Please model this.
Amino acid sequence: MNKELFGVHAPTKDCTDKKCPFHGQLSVKKELFRGKIIKKDSNRSATIEWFRPYYIPKYERYELRRSRMHVHNPACVEAEIGDNVLAARTRPLSKTKNHVILAVVGSDEKSAVSKSAKKKETAKVAAKEEGKVR
Ligand SMILES: [Zn+2]
Model:
């Protein structure tokens, strides 16, 4: 069992998920992604999405390009739709899943109070992971 991964502490919730990076046998690589959950299914899977500016030289302007990824949502993390999450690369978990959610790093729905408290926590992680996050 891992207590900490890349500065993220293991959730305190009970978990029997074999594909959990904290409580199961899953090892993760330091290849991190940040995205927002847009879809969830009943089988501990989720889809995350993020946008990045892409430069078009001809028009000297940026357009927004979208990336989507299918990720595992461990029982102890249980991220909801609208949550911003940190995901890490791992072994293939299914046909389309190669990544697992490590932590929720903020949500659009939550109140400003809990957001600022979480921000402090995640700021440390972000500082560490700077440059590695795509
Ligand atoms: Zn777990």
User: Anything to note?
Assistant: The mean pLDDT is 82. The chain has one helix and seven strands.
